[in-house]
């Protein structure tokens, strides 16, 4: 707990003394510290690809000027680094947009089945490339929920992509829909979209921190897989805006279940 303390001398005929005033500024300090950490993290994340690109430019202008094989190799590495910066900026923009809209509830009723199918269609190539599979078990009857379609697509996309990405030799991803008569946290009837994988699983100590911005279990592996460290933070904010929450369950060595739980209207 942090306090700001002010000291005032009181001198009048009735009373002489000092007045100490303690103001609890824990909230302000924490918010301030978080903002500073965030800016430091963003700068660091942008600087490393930028430094690599600048280094390659220097080499191409100097020692590797006439080496066409090296030039091709360096150019493709530079393209990959630029792509990484592009992804990061894209995720930062998504995050700030979601935060901006946090108080505005989405207006349109969306068919969740349609959204999930379109996301699976987009990720099929990634699954094939990784030697993984995506299986989907839709709900018996259509589920219409008040949702922002682009944002909900992003939720499913981030969760399914993570499930595919973090498995060693191809992951089998299973998506199913579950009715919750009454969700104790959301305080009402809800529906859960469970995205399960048979990947490496997650050590329980990491689970509460996974939705923090830039929190990764293995930074090297996340970067290698094209991760920005913002995916689950975006998911959490979108679900909050939709009166929902993210529930993570995992068993090391067996796999994980990421559940997007949404309140029914
Ligand atoms: P990233 O861009 O690094 O994927 P995320 O916010 O999406 O960032 O995820 C944070 C971290 O959570 C990842 O770096 C990874 O270590 C871990 N993670 C997320 N999903 C899974 C999963 N399905 N299986 C194992 N680890 C996961």
UniProtKB/TrEMBL annotation:
Which transformation does this protein catalyse, written as a reaction? ATP + protein L-histidine = ADP + protein N-phospho-L-histidine
Annotated Histidine kinase domain residues:
41-265
Localization (cell): Cell membrane
Q: Which domain of life is it from?
A: Bacteria
Q: Which UniProt keywords apply?
A: ATP-binding, Cell membrane, Kinase, Membrane, Nucleotide-binding, Phosphoprotein, Transferase, Two-component regulatory system
Group of enzyme by EC: transferase
GO BP, sorted A to Z? cellular response to phosphate starvation
Gene Ontology CC terms, in alphabetical order: plasma membrane
Q: Name one GO molecular function term.
A: ATP binding
ATP-binding recorded as keyword = yes
What is the designated name of this protein? histidine kinase
């Amino acid at each position: 707990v942090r306090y700001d303390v002010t000291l005032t001398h009181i001198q009048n005929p009735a009373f002489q003394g000092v007045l100490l005033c303690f103001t609890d500024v824990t909230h302000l300090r924490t918010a301030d510290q978080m903002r500073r950490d965030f800016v430091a993290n963003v700068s660091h994340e942008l600087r490393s690809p930028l430094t690599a690109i600048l280094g390659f430019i220097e080499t191409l202008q100097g020692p590797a000027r006439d080496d066409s094989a090296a030039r091709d190799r360096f150019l493709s590495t530079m393209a990959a680094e630029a792509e990484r910066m592009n992804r990061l900026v894209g995720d930062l923009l998504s995050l700030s947009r979601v935060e901006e809209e946090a108080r505005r509830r989405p207006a349109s009723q969306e068919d969740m089945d349609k959204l999930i199918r379109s996301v699976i269609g987009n990720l099929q190539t990634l699954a094939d490339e990784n030697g993984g599979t995506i299986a989907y078990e839709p709900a018996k009857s259509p589920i219409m929920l008040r949702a922002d379609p682009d944002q909900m697509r992003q939720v499913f996309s981030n969760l399914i992509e993570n499930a595919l990405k973090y498995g060693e030799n191809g992951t089998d991803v299973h998506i199913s829909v579950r009715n919750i008569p009454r969700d104790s946290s959301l305080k009402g009837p809800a529906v859960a979209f469970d995205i399960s994988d048979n990947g490496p699983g997650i050590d329980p100590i990491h689970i509460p921190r996974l939705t923090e911005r830039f929190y990764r279990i293995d930074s090297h592996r996340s970067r290698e897989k094209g991760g920005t460290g913002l995916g689950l933070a975006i998911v959490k904010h979108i679900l909050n805006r939709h009166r929902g929450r993210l529930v993570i369950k995992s068993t090391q060595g067996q796999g994980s279940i990421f559940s997007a739980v949404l309140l029914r209207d």
